[in-house]
Design brief:
Blueprint: H1 3-33, H2 39-46, H3 55-78, H4 80-99, H5 104-132, H6 136-167, H7 172-175, H8 177-191, H9 205-228, H10 233-253, H11 263-267, H12 269-299, H13 304-310, H14 312-329, H15 336-351, H16 366-387, H17 397-433, H18 441-470
Helix pairs in contact: 1-5, 1-6, 1-8, 3-4, 3-5, 3-9, 3-17, 4-5, 4-8, 5-17, 6-13, 6-14, 6-16, 9-10, 9-17, 12-15, 12-16, 12-17, 12-18, 14-16, 15-16, 15-18, 17-18
Length: 504
């Protein structure tokens, strides 16, 4: 058979596989925001107290964030396709359970199960993408699509959550996962091929216990910080304990024969810069979602559906930025040439919130923030997700993918809790300075949004400076793609390392 005849089916199969892997990623990202708008309806329907309602979100993030590294290593050892399909099946069942929940406890269990299966699904999906696309131009296009899904999915989740809650029922915010997961599972079963780390599966149990406990402590503390206060003994104790456990994890990983997270995966300057860029951009992204949602619904009186529709320009900005710039420039320029300007643009979007007033219109208010942040995110995420597995051996693709998912989750959990605390403190200070006048409630809320937006901008700009100094990676080398079947694989195939220039 001629070489062209051997390569063409493989390429076709890769892009078909990307469709189903992308659907799985869309479901994960949607689930991070689709339930948020439905929370008031869920609380009323199931009789949940104000103090307990946060657990509907926290149960998911806690399980998801704390189990990601373990999920990535499971994918590496037991097979990425197998893990992907098992995770989709479990996520489908958990979503059905949550949609049918008749009480708070059952819903909480379902959300935790969604998070646990999501911790398997996220790393297996990204590692499949990593080992399938190795030629720089194809890889840039694939990760451009992936980054656009990751950046736009949160805003689409707000739109879907508003529409499903208003026109159907809050339960459909969970049921909507079922058809998406089924299509992804059926398609994935048909077109994906297996790849796994060679050798017998050996799991670093001490490492699993340490990192899971440490991440649970940090994510739980972030979820409780709003109600307990960042300065409370409980929150300080949890954060300190979590940090100590993670330090102990780092020490253990340097000494065990088969580490859960090999130190070289995160010590690489390129991958470290990518993880940092993802974590800090997500802080701003989820902060923007939170504050703009409250501004539109509480201050401007928008309905859930109108609020969701109002986020669509952000989605368009992400798609334009990732499609017109990131996918085309990614194979040609060093990564920081795209990531650093993207972070600066995102910080500009958060700074625009300083112009917000209670009387601000949509066009001169949140729309500008949406467009700037969406355009910046379209530059950051495709590039960062691409380089998150830069230079890593294919046998560690799952855990490297889990590491960037962990950075994203921790950034979202800790960052949003921190920004929300800053916003509520600024609101309280404003009311205290103005005599606690209830008539000024909206003005006080907007003051909180402005203050938190300024802090978010500062955090992202600091991250941009760090990435500029840390990420000294040159542009990718243009090498021919190997004409083997590894991209679509045999039953236990490992694909070659991504063909990128190494810069440590």
């Amino acid at each position: 058979m001629a070489p062209t005849e051997a390569v063409t089916p493989a390429a076709s199969r890769r892009w078909t596989a990307l469709l189903f892997i992308g659907l799985a990623q869309l479901m994960i990202v949607l689930d991070g925001t689709v339930v948020n708008i439905a929370l008031p309806s869920v609380q009323t329907d199931l009789g949940i107290s104000d103090g307990d309602r946060q657990w509907i979100i926290t149960a998911y993030t806690l399980a998801f964030g704390s189990l990601l590294l373990f999920g990535g290593r499971i994918a590496d050892y037991t097979g990425r396709k197998r893990t992907f399909l098992i995770a989709l099946t479990g996520f489908t069942c958990a979503s059905a359970l949550g949609g049918a929940a008749s009480n708070f406890e059952l819903l909480l269990t379902a959300r935790a199960l969604q998070g646990a299966f999501g911790a398997l699904l996220g790393p297996s999906a990204l590692s499949l993408l990593t080992v399938m696309f190795t030629e720089p131009k194809e890889r840039a296009k694939a990760f451009g699509i992936w980054g656009a899904i990751s950046a736009a999915g949160g805003a689409l989740g707000l739109l879907a959550g508003g529409a499903l809650t208003e026109y159907l029922d809050w339960r459909w915010c969970l049921y909507v996962n079922i058809p998406i997961a089924l299509v992804a599972a059926i398609g994935g079963y048909a077109v994906l091929t297996e790849s796994r780390r060679p050798g017998k599966a050996r799991f670093d149990i001490p490492g699993v216990i340490l990192v899971t406990s440490g991440l649970v402590a940090i994510v739980y503390a972030a979820g409780r910080a709003e109600s307990d206060g960042w300065g409370s003994a409980k929150i300080i104790g949890l954060l300190t304990g979590g940090a100590v456990l993670l330090v102990a994890f780092a020490v253990v990983e340097r000494r065990v024969r088969q580490p859960l997270l090999p130190p070289h995966v995160v010590a690489d300057r390129t991958r470290g810069g990518a993880y940092l860029a993802v974590a800090l951009s997500v802080v701003g992204m989820f902060g923007a979602f939170l504050f703009m949602t409250y501004f539109m619904q509480v201050v401007k009186g928008y309905s859930p559906v109108r609020t969701g529709v109002a986020f669509l320009p952000m989605v368009v900005a992400v798609l334009v930025s990732s499609g017109a710039l990131s996918m085309r420039l990614l194979p040609k320029v060093p990564p920081r040439v795209l990531i650093v300007p993207g972070m600066v643009i995102c910080s500009g979007g958060m700074l625009w919130m300083l112009t917000l007033e209670t009387g601000s219109g949509y066009a001169d208010g949140v729309l500008v923030t949406e467009l700037l942040f969406g355009f910046g995110a379209g530059l950051i995420l495709p590039v960062s997700l691409n380089y998150a597995t830069h230079g890593v051996d294919a046998s560690d693709a799952g855990v490297a993918s889990a590491s960037v998912n962990t950075a994203q989750q921790i950034g979202a959990s800790v960052g949003v809790a921190l920004l929300n605390t800053i916003a509520t403190s600024a609101t309280a200070d404003y009311l205290a300075d103005h005599g606690m006048n209830p008539a000024l409630a909206k003005e006080a809320a907007v003051e909180g949004f402005r203050t938190a937006g300024a802090w978010a901008a500062g955090i992202i700009l600091t991250g941009a400076l760090a990435v500029a100094l840390l990420m000294n990676t040159p542009r990718p080398e243009q090498r021919a793609e190997p004409e083997d079947a590894a991209a679509v694989g045999g039953d236990t195939a490992e694909t070659p390392e991504p063909q990128l220039a190494h810069g440590r």
